[in-house]
């Protein structure tokens, strides 16, 4: 047997104790369930249904049908609905923040920040202008018009590090551009996305937004499904490559937002005391589980020791622990698999005798996935901690002397997601930034993607991108209309 219809969405008061898939505007259970784990104390969270192939098939069929009318609604009509979704989420900020904190291990102030950023994403899309049309040529005989049309059904596959806001970027852009969407949260963090999909059904036409939680089989089923026109994927580079292979069978459009190994470059002219807190945030925010986090620190040799000491001071001043503890700055790593991966980086550094400027014992409390942050002082450039993305609270710091020797080291990676430059001399900062092979570079700020700015990885950090005007275009097909104005009898002679 497949899945079990339980209730139309919106029929009952929103419960933060029960979680369902959302299919055909209804709340749906399943015979098979699993549950997330609270990373602060490893306690089990609520059961969530595991969608079956039949659930997916039905969702795709419903989404294709819904597309027929949704794609014909106007930009303004869709924006009005996105505005209602924004207002609904705004009403639920404290509850959703609590949920995000429990499922993801974010301290409550940062979980609240993620819900606010999700509200901001809906707000941006409720006001973003349409890409409109472009007249390529308008002569006596011929008019060429480039316009953009929606793709159809989008399938969105999300990671666990920012479950809600990353899903929101996909949902709001897909809906605004006239697509219907099926969203799949990470099985590690399904709760906030399923609850959001449930709470906004009341504003959406039947089947326009559906949400399916699943096991390891659901992602591959979506990428192979002939009824899905586009996959927007955010996750690791390894999985992104699998997505691209599977999508090739039906030539689905793909957007791949993948991993990175971003460099943070600190120039000799900075105010060390002012910059150190920003550098520390860039490396350790969300316990290092941020795709664009600073994963390699390059500090000019003339201020290296001073910067190291300031960074140690900042990080030692932070409270690290389970999210139930008051005033935590860094929470646990989100899941056991990631905890073991990060621990592997600690062990590799220890075995190879690299110096831990701070940190080193790997664990903070045995009851959760808490890891005390670590800075590795000047490991060799071939070390794992320099070469690979740990996606946890451990970062290497290395000195540099000249731009000429620095830039090749910065670009010595197969990834190209982000980078940051701290420099008082803006001309020099721009010169360095423009040589970094990455989709986004921040100057004098830690790494903070903005909804209005296109976000796309270079090299193995991705394909295409999301957010901003260009992000909207990634949910649309270009179409060029050739309009001949002359008498049709004369067209052959032109
Ligand atoms: P992951 O690749 O393990 O999983 C991501 C999603 O893909 C999950 O929903 C998972 O269920 C699904 N999935 C797994 N196998 C699949 C398959 N074969 N086909 C289709 N879907 C499949 O990534 P993760 O561990 O959840 O996230 C961490 C990674 O994501 C890090 O590398 C991080 O840098 C990256 N990330 C990138 C961005 C960005 O915008 N570039 C943002 C956040 C995270």
From TrEMBL:
PANTHER family registered for this protein in UniProt: ALDEHYDE DEHYDROGENASE-RELATED (PTHR11699)
Gene Ontology molecular function, alphabetical: aldehyde dehydrogenase (NAD+) activity
Active site (UniProt): 257
Source species: Phialocephala subalpina
SUPFAM superfamilies according to UniProt: ALDH-like
EC class (word): oxidoreductase
Keyword Oxidoreductase among record annotations: yes
Aldehyde dehydrogenase domain: residues covered: 34-480
EC number: 1.2.1.3
Signal peptide: none
Name of the featured protein: aldehyde dehydrogenase (NAD(+))
Catalytic reactions of this protein: an aldehyde + NAD(+) + H2O = a carboxylate + NADH + 2 H(+)
Record-stated family: Belongs to the aldehyde dehydrogenase family.
Record key words, sorted: Oxidoreductase
